[in-house]
Structure formats: structure tokens, C-alpha cells
């Protein structure tokens, strides 16, 4: 299992989406998010996209006002995770059309559905945007 | 419509929360929403359960408790419609708090959904099982998942594959059922199925050797072909990432090959060609290509020996290392760590570049590089590398200094070719980052210094120089103060000059200045100041001309509000003023510290050491003088017992010092007196809090000295301590009175205790990790029964949980334990547990109390057991 959590956080450090693939209670999660976000937000553009925190390695990438942070274990290929983040953003872009913070906030469940189609139990399930989005489009059509 | 089911839409709630200006406002909004959702749940109002769950997910994300929504998820999952199930499963995965009951309730729904005719619903159930399934669920549902691995729709097969990973991780015994279906997945065309199938095989290999062998035999050829086809495949728009087809699948395939090739020469042989092809052909100008190269290098490093490929891999890392992209440099450093184990020569070639990375502005890169440099150091390059690191220490960021100095110290200790170099480097580190180093570092330095007699002069002069410019570095000041105290005379007369030194001109007054400045600095902490006082005492004997001035400084500290300093000042002051004849003998140079003992102790105090109580049996003070412990050890705050004391006649000194007339009646206890005299001497010289075991031997004396009004003149300056105070004050002041009163009283111990129903508290049990104090009281009218209040204090930096105290008494006693105040004990003495119990003594007046104790607790997730016997109860309880 490579991916331990996926976070989306805005520039002010507010969590906009959080998905954990291991169990942490609310206090642990809040503390972890606070520490990691503080660390990542303090870094500048030139610095590398990896931060080590506790026993996690956090791979993060910034898109406009939104930070995507993925916590992985030490064995994971960091560059691949970076590529995964980009894929996630592209997928959301394709669905929402130039995704922004508000899209994720107001369609939190859809964002989760997409993530669910991409990652399961910490492993990547699917990398084709069409395959990821087709079940979500089906729901949209149905409702 | 139910008035409680709030009509606010999800959108409106989010808006309301966003509009909040303070955290308190946000909490209020969330509380209101939660209340209405709870109301809706308890009213069984289904109209809005979908919306309510979406709200709960948002509230959960903000970090508020949402456990009450779990049952709602179950209801939604059980409902027939897809949208309800969809949100229900999502809610379950997000809100679940690992409560087994909830999981058990959901097992049945998942089982039904796994057999649903709608494939999307099957997908949902698989996803939920894969994300949150427990071991029981894995056992129950494994057959269904196994069947779904062959489902017609690839989107189900891929989810079933990942679900299987969860199952075999929870129940490894089930792995063998899945070997064949997993191997079949590797022959698929669909990328999603391949990706998850490969991942499943990787995990199968981890849990089952059988799977590993099977895949080695049957699948390597197929996997190699798969990877080759993928590498050569034409443009595939759906999976293309900047010109490379499905880098994710590339990486997973490489990882599986690595797992199969590790430790198997034949398998490794079969994949050499394809690895070489990937390593040479992959484009390295894009991140996706580099990700594949990185994984390929990792595979080459792990599989069995192939020199040619290794060179290729190290070259790729070299290229990565010189990249301008920080991400690439980071992964290169990461991988070079692994390469060190295989081919350290090849990595050494990049030493200069790696050293540059230690100075990178990026903290992540610095950290990696520093770890790597640490591995690179060997006997040949230690001087050069250390110089680079020490130079960098001067300019590095403050937050990096801690890590960096710890690593330098570790390198210097490990590889130091000679003592003078060691001392030089450590002084540099302490001058630059003395506030960041740990205590054991400067302790170790002092041990090394005492063991290098020919360098004493050199060291003290270097320290004197260093402390002039870096006086804000606490640990440097401590070492300097200690050395000036010990070797002050060598500082003044330039004794033991080395060729490399220039003579310095330091007067006695200058040396005292250093100590005086250190003791007066506001930033100095208790340890430093206490060390300063000890150093001053020593200097007063080494520099007779400054004795008056030193006495003034010490005198000044007699008013210190800190007990430890006040006590020292008073004791030292009386030594200087009244006991001129023995002073020089008292402050003789410290004996050489035993390096082996120190390093052994250090190793023993490593945080991962198993129970400390097994290594060193707890010392139980029992009123009898304990064996002599070395003053120096106390001085450095080591608590080891086996260093021989230097002065064989410590007791005599003491008797001189205190002007004790030899015991009026030569009792068998005389010998004992001498020994406790030694203990006194130790206290006199010790830094830190006086160790309880030596002082508690004075406790009895304390109570007697109250009757006995022969207190010395200094006693008048202290208020008479009340014996029932339980903190360190009776301990400290008892040794004080002991100093003044001498031992005449110690013979008359039994006399003392008759004067009332109060008894002094005792330290009943003490080990390196725990301290137990007993306070006694009697119920009026029942002299046989004693009420004891035990107080437990944690001396270690780890919190103790599951703390249980048990006690056993001989037959003539009866024991009744009350419940303890808590079963967790905060670290570092930051709080305590109290437990009361009652002991009835049927032989009251004839026999005194004894007790065996056993203490269980969990520290650092390890069970610790400490045991001991308590026999130092006051006599007539």
C-alpha cells in the first residue's frame, strides 16, 4: 500500500478534501493536517516537492490557490506520485472544466467519487480519465 | 414536514460556514447543523438523509466528530437505489471509526451488493470492502471476491484485484487461493486490470513464498514481454503522459520484476535485457520519464549482481544528481543511500556534489544529503568531510543546526583518529551549535578529556579561548567551566604546551572571571550555575590569591532562591571559611572517568533499550548506608555505581570536616557511620538534585536532629524543615543538617520517632525510570493500622500507561489497597499517580513493616515490570 492519504488544502491552510487510507482519529488527523500543511505552505516554488514528516513522505504540488498533498510511505516512487497528482487534477479539470477550490467544496462528494475511482486501499486503480469519469457521468445523467 | 429537519441545503450550509469569521462562529454553525441532523436521524426522517450525509462529510472534513452518522450510512447502503447506496458507501468509508460492530452490521449488505445484478453497485461494494474491510469480513467475503476476479467487466476485475490485496493482508492464509487468478490477470489487455493485477502480484509475493516461486516460474517471460510492448507501444491517447504510455503501469511492472528478481539469479538474468532497454531508451526530459528511470534504477539495485547494469544505474543517478530540478536531485540522493550498500566506491565519486547538497537551501534535500554524507564517512575521509560540515555549521539555518551538529558529533565519535582532533572538532561544534547538542554529547566530551591527561592543558586553554567568543552556547560554557575548575592551574601556567599552541597569558583573575560571568548570566540554567559553584570551590583551592573573591561570589549565592544553589553555596562557603585544612584534599583533581562504563551506560540508556529495570536492579534505600558511589559520577549526573572512589579516606575527611567526635559508644554502627560519611561527601560534590538514595539515609537523622538542639550556627539560617514535607526539601536539608550536626545523632535514631503521630515520608522505591514516595499517617486510636499514601513519579521521557502497582506483605501484616488515582503516568515527573492503602501490623511494636512491590506498566508500547522490597519504613509503624 503506497498512498496513505490525499489532502486538498487552500492557500490559507483550510482543508478542502481529505481522504485517509489508514485509520486516524479526529484529533490525530487535525494535528497531522496542521503540521503538514504548515510545513508545505512555508516552502517556495523552487524547493522540491517532497517533505518528510513523521513516518510519511508527503508529495505535494500547487495548482493556483490549491495545494494537493499526498502522503505515501517511504518505499513509494515520489516522482510517480507527482504524476498521479497531475492526473487527478487533469481528471477534475475534465469534469468541472478548469477546476477551482469552490468546485471541490460544493461538489465534495463528486470529488470523492473521482478519487475513489482512482485510488482504492492506497493503490492506484485506474489511470484513464475516460474510465474514471464514466461512472460519475452516469450518475449525473440519472439525476 | 418535521420542523427539526433543517431545510438548509448543503450549499447553504457550506456558504454559512465559509462566511464565519472566527473559529467560534464556525463551531456554532456546525453545532446547529449537527443538532438538526441528529434530530432528523432520531426521527427516522428519510427525506433528507442523502443531503444530511453529504453535510456530515463536509463537517467531518473540517474535523468535527460525526460518529452519529455511521448508522445512517448503513441505512442508506441497505436502501435499494443507486444514488443512496453511492453516498452511503462513501459516508461509510469516510466516517467509519473502526468500530467493529458497525463493520459487522455492514458485512451482510456488502455481501448482497457483491452479488447485485447492477455492476456499478458491485463496484461500490468492492471499493468499500477494499478500503475498510476487517479480517472477519475478508474471511466471509473472500469467495465472492475470488469469483469477481473473473467478472466480465474489466472495471469490476480491477477493483476485485485491489480488494484481494486487502484480504490477503488481513488474512495471509487466504493468499494461496488467489495465486492462480492473480497470475491470470497479468495476461489481460485492459490497463486498469493490469495495473491492479501487477500490484496484487507484488503483495502476494510479500505474504506468500509459494506465490513468489510460482510467479518466478510462470510469469517472468510474460511480464518482460508486457514491459517491452509497453515501452515500444505507439501513441495511446488515453494513457499517454507527456509522450510515455502509462508510466504508472511501467512503474508497477518494474516493481514486480524487482520483487521477483531479488535473491534469484535466474530470474534476474531473464530481466537484464529489458531493464537495460528501459534504462537507456527512456526519455529523461520529463517527470514521467524520470519516474520510470528512478524505478528502473531501484530494480537494478535490488536484483542479483550484474556489473554492467549497476554502472548504468549509478550513471543515471549521477545525471539525476547534477540535474537542476530539485525533485530529481532529491530522489537521486534517496537512491544513492541504497546504492551505498552495493557499491560505495561509485557513490564516493559523487562526494563533492553530495556535500554541496548538504548546503542546499531546500530543507528536504539537505536532510537527505546529510544522511547520505553520514554513510559516506570512513576513516580515510573523516577529516575532510568533518571540516566541510563544521564549516557549514557556521552559516547554516538555525533549524538545521540541531540535525547537523548531531550528525557531526556522531561522525566524530565514530571515526575520530586521535583525541586531540576529537576535542578540536567537538569544541568547534559546541562553539557554533552548543545550544543544540544533547547532554550525552558534552558528557562524552568530558569523559574523553579526562582520559587524555597530556591534553588537559591544551583543552582548557582552547576552551578558555572559545568561551570568550561563544559565551551564549550553554553546553560549551558547561564544559569550559568544568575544565577550568579541574585544570585551572594548567590554564594559568601554560603547562603541557603542545607545539601547535601559542602561549597565552591568562591570570588567575581571568579564569575566575569566566566562571563568574557564566554564573551571573541570565540565560544560564540550573545545571550550569551549579557547575559554576563547584568550579569556584575548586578554584578557591587552586588559586589561593582569589580565594577571598571566590568566597564573595559563593556568599552571594547563599541567598539564591533555588534550593540546589543555596545549598551548595552554604556548604561550599563553610568549607572555605571553616575547613581550610581539608579543602585542598576535598577538591583534588577528579579521577579519570572510565570510558567503558560511560559508553556502556550510554548504550543502556538508548530509548529502545528493553526494560531498564532489568539491567540495573532498582536501588532501594533502606536506611542503611549504601555502598560508596563515585563523586565524579554524580558530578556529571551519571548514575552508575561501579567507579571506584579516589580518596580512600573519604569518611575521615568528612569527620574532620564536620568536627565529629568519634561516636560516644562504639557500636557496630561505627563502620556504617564512616560509610555514610562518604555518602555525605558525595552529596557535597554532586551536581544535580541530590540522589535520593544517598540522602534518604539521612532521613532518620533528620528526625533526631530536631530533638537534639545542637544545630550548628548555619542551621539558624534555615527554617527548621518539617519532616512531613514530601518533596526534595527534607532530603536536601537533612543532608545539610547532617553536614552541620555530624553523626553523633545517628546512633540515637530510635529516640527520635516517638514524638508524635507524624512520620517522615520515605522514598520507598526508586529506579532509573520511576520513583515511589510513601507518606504515612495513623488513625487515632488504632496504632496498629497505618495509612500509607503512595505517590508515583515518572522519571523517564516516556508516558507510562496501564500502570499497576501491586504489593505483598508477610503474614503478620494485613494489607488493603484502594484504587489508584489513574493508570497513566505523564512523562518527566509532570504529574503523579497516588494510591492509598492501609496496613495493619499484628505485631505492632515488635516488628516493623516490610513489603514487596511489583509495578507493571507500558512504556513505548513495551511492557515493563519493576520489583523490589521496601524495608525502610519508619521503625514503629
From TrEMBL, chain A:
Subcellular location as annotated: Endomembrane system
Domain AP complex mu/sigma subunit: 3-142
Pfam families referenced in this protein's UniProt entry, alphabetically: Clat_adaptor_s
Keywords: Membrane, Protein transport, Transport
GO BP term, pick one: intracellular protein transport
Signal peptide from the UniProt entry: none
Chief place where the protein resides: membrane
GO cellular component, one term: cytoplasm
Family, as annotated: Belongs to the adaptor complexes small subunit family.
Protein name: AP complex subunit sigma
Native organism: Perilla frutescens var. hirtella (Perilla citriodora)
Lineage: Eukaryota, Viridiplantae, Streptophyta, Embryophyta, Tracheophyta
TrEMBL record, chain B:
Cell compartments where the protein resides: Cytoplasmic vesicle, Clathrin-coated vesicle membrane; Golgi apparatus
Region (Disordered), start-end ranges: 601-623, 664-731
InterPro entries reported in the protein's UniProt record: Adaptor_Complx_Large_Subunit, AP1_complex_gsu, ARM-like, ARM-type_fold, Clathrin/coatomer_adapt-like_N, Clathrin_a/b/g-adaptin_app_Ig, Clathrin_app_Ig-like_sf, GAE_dom
Top-level division of the source organism's lineage: Eukaryota
Biased composition (Polar residues): 668-677
Task of the protein: Subunit of clathrin-associated adaptor protein complex 1 that plays a role in protein sorting at the trans-Golgi network and early endosomes (TGN/EE). The AP complexes mediate both the recruitment of clathrin to membranes and the recognition of sorting signals within the cytosolic tails of transmembrane cargo molecules.
Protein name according to UniProt: AP-1 complex subunit gamma
Organism taxonomic ancestry: Eukaryota, Viridiplantae, Streptophyta, Embryophyta, Tracheophyta
Amino acid at each position: 500500500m503506497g498512498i496513505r492519504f490525499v489532502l486538498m488544502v487552500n492557500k490559507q491552510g483550510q482543508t478542502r478534501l481529505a481522504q485517509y487510507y489508514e485509520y486516524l482519529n479526529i484529533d490525530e488527523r487535525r494535528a497531522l493536517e496542521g503540521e503538514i500543511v504548515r510545513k508545505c505552505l512555508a516552502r517556495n516554488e523552487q524547493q522540491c516537492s517532497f517533505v518528510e514528516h513523521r513516518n510519511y513522505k508527503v508529495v505535494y504540488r500547487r495548482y493556483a490557490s490549491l495545494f494537493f498533498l499526498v502522503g505515501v510511505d517511504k518505499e513509494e516512487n515520489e516522482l510517480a506520485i507527482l504524476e498521479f497528482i497531475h492526473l487527478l487534477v487533469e481528471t477534475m479539470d475534465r469534469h468541472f472544466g478548469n477546476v477551482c477550490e469552490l468546485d471541490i467544496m460544493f461538489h465534495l462528494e463528486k470529488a470523492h467519487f473521482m478519487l475513489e475511482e482512482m485510488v482504492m486501499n492506497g493503490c492506484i486503480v485506474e489511470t484513464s480519465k475516460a474510465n474514471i469519469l464514466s461512472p460519475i457521468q452516469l450518475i449525473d445523467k440519472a439525476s | 414536514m418535521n420542523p427539526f429537519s433543517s431545510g438548509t441545503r448543503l450549499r447553504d450550509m457550506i456558504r454559512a460556514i465559509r462566511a464565519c469569521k472566527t473559529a467560534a462562529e464556525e463551531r456554532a454553525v456546525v453545532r446547529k447543523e449537527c443538532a438538526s441532523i441528529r434530530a432528523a436521524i432520531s426521527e427516522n426522517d428519510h427525506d433528507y438523509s442523502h443531503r444530511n450525509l453529504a453535510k456530515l462529510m463536509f463537517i467531518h472534513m473540517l474535523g468535527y466528530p460525526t460518529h452519529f452518522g455511521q448508522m445512517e450510512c448503513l441505512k442508506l447502503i441497505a436502501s435499494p437505489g443507486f444514488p443512496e447506496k453511492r453516498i452511503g458507501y462513501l459516508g461509510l468509508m469516510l466516517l467509519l471509526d473502526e468500530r467493529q460492530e458497525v463493520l459487522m452490521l455492514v458485512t451482510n449488505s456488502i455481501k448482497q451488493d457483491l452479488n447485485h445484478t447492477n455492476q456499478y453497485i458491485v463496484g461500490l461494494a468492492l471499493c468499500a470492502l477494499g478500503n475498510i474491510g476487517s479480517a472477519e469480513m475478508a474471511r466471509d467475503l473472500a469467495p465472492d471476491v475470488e469469483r469477481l476476479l473473473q467478472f466480465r467487466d474489466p472495471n469490476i476485475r480491477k477493483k476485485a484485484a485491489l480488494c484481494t490485496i486487502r484480504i490477503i493482508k488481513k488474512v495471509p492464509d487466504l493468499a494461496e487461493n488467489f495465486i492462480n487468478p492473480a497470475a491470470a490477470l497479468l495476461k489481460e489487455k485492459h490497463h486498469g486490470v493490469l495495473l491492479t493485477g501487477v500490484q496484487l502480484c507484488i503483495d502476494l509475493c510479500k505474504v506468500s513464498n509459494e506465490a513468489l516461486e510460482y510467479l518466478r516460474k510462470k510469469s517472468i517471460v510474460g511480464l518482460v514481454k508486457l514491459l517491452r510492448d509497453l515501452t515500444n507501444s505507439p501513441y495511446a491517447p488515453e494513457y499517454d503522459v507527456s509522450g510515455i504510455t502509462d508510466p504508472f503501469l511501467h512503474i508497477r511492472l518494474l516493481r514486480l520484476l524487482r520483487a521477483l528478481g531479488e535473491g534469484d539469479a535466474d530470474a534476474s538474468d531473464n530481466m537484464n535485457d529489458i531493464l537495460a532497454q528501459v534504462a537507456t531508451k527512456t526519455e529523461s526530459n520529463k517527470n514521467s520519464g524520470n519516474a520510470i528511470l528512478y524505478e528502473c534504477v531501484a530494480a537494478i539495485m535490488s536484483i542479483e549482481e550484474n556489473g554492467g547494469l549497476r554502472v548504468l544505474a549509478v550513471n543515471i543517478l549521477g545525471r539525476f544528481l547534477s540535474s537542476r530540478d530539485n525533485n530529481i536531485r532529491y530522489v537521486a540522493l534517496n537512491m544513492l543511500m541504497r546504492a551505498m550498500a552495493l557499491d560505495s566506491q561509485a557513490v564516493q565519486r559523487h562526494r563533492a556534489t553530495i556535500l554541496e547538497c548538504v548546503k542546499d537551501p531546500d530543507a528536504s534535500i539537505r536532510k537527505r544529503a546529510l544522511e547520505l554524507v553520514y554513510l559516506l564517512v570512513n576513516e580515510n575521509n573523516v577529516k575532510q568531510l568533518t571540516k566541510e560540515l563544521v564549516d557549514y555549521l557556521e552559516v547554516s539555518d538555525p533549524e538545521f543546526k540541531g540535525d547537523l551538529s548531531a550528525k557531526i558529533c556522531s561522525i566524530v565519535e565514530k571515526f575520530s583518529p586521535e583525541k586531540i582532533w576529537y576535542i578540536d572538532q567537538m569544541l568547534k561544534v559546541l562553539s557554533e551549535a552548543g545550544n543544540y547538542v544533547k547532554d550525552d554529547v558534552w558528557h562524552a566530551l568530558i569523559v574523553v578529556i579526562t582520559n587524555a591527561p597530556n591534553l588537559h592543558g591544551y583543552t582548557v586553554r582552547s576552551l578558555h579561548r572559545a568561551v570568550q567568543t561563544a559565551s551564549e552556547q550553554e553546553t560549551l560554557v558547561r564544559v569550559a567551566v568544568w575544565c577550568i575548575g579541574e585544570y585551572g592551574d594548567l590554564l594559568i601556567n601554560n603547562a603541557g604546551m603542545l607545539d601547535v599552541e601559542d602561549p597565552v597569558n591568562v591570570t588567575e583573575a581571568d579564569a575566575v572571571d569566566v566562571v563568574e560571568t557564566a554564573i551571573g548570566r541570565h540565560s544560564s540554567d540550573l545545571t550550569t550555575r551549579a557547575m559554576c559553584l563547584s568550579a569556584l570551590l575548586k578554584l578557591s583551592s587552586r588559586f589561593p590569591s582569589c580565594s577571598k573573591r571566590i568566597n564573595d561570589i559563593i556568599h552571594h549565592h547563599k541567598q539564591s532562591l533555588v534550593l540546589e544553589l543555596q545549598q551548595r553555596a552554604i556548604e561550599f562557603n563553610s568549607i572555605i571559611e571553616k575547613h581550610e585544612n581539608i579543602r585542598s584534599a576535598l577538591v583534588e583533581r577528579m579521577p579519570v572517568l572510565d570510558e567503558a562504563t560511560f559508553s556502556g551506560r550510554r548504550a543502556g540508556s538508548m530509548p529502545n533499550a528493553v526494560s531498564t529495570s532489568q539491567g540495573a536492579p532498582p536501588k532501594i534505600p533502606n536506611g542503611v548506608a549504601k555502598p560508596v558511589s563515585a563523586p565524579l559520577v554524580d558530578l556529571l549526573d551519571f548514575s552508575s555505581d561501579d567507579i571506584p572512589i579516589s580518596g580512600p579516606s573519604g569518611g575521615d575527611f568528612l569527620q574532620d570536616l564536620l568536627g565529629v567526635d568519634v561516636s560516644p559508644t562504639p557500636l557496630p554502627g561505627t563502620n556504617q557511620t564512616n560509610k555514610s560519611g562518604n555518602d555525605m561527601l558525595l552529596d557535597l560534590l554532586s551536581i544535580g538534585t541530590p540522589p535520593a538514595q544517598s540522602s534518604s539515609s539521612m532521613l532518620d537523622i533528620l528526625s533526631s536532629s530536631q530533638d537534639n538542639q545542637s544545630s550548628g550556627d548555619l542551621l539558624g539560617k534555615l527554617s527548621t524543615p518539617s519532616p512531613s514535607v514530601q518533596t526534595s526539601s527534607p532530603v536536601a536539608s537533612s543532608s545539610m543538617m547532617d553536614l552541620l550536626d555530624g553523626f553523633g545523632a545517628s546512633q540515637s535514631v530510635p529516640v527520635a520517632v516517638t514524638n508524635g503521630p507524624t512520620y517522615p515520608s520515605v522514598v520507598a522505591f526508586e529506579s532509573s525510570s520511576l520513583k515511589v514516595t510513601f507518606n504515612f499517617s495513623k488513625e487515632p486510636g488504632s496504632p496498629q493500622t497505618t495509612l500509607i499514601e503512595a505517590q508515583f513519579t515518572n522519571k523517564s521521557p516516556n508516558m507510562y500507561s496501564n500502570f499497576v502497582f501491586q504489593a505483598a506483605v508477610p503474614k503478620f501484616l494485613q494489607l488493603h489497597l484502594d484504587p489508584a488515582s489513574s493508570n497513566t503516568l505523564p512523562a518527566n515527573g509532570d504529574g503523579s499517580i497516588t494510591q492509598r492503602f492501609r496496613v495493619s501490623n499484628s505485631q505492632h511494636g515488635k516488628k516493623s513493616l516490610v513489603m514487596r512491590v511489583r509495578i507493571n506498566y507500558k512504556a513505548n508500547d513495551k511492557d515493563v515490570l519493576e520489583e523490589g522490597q521496601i524495608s525502610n519504613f519508619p521503625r514503629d509503624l
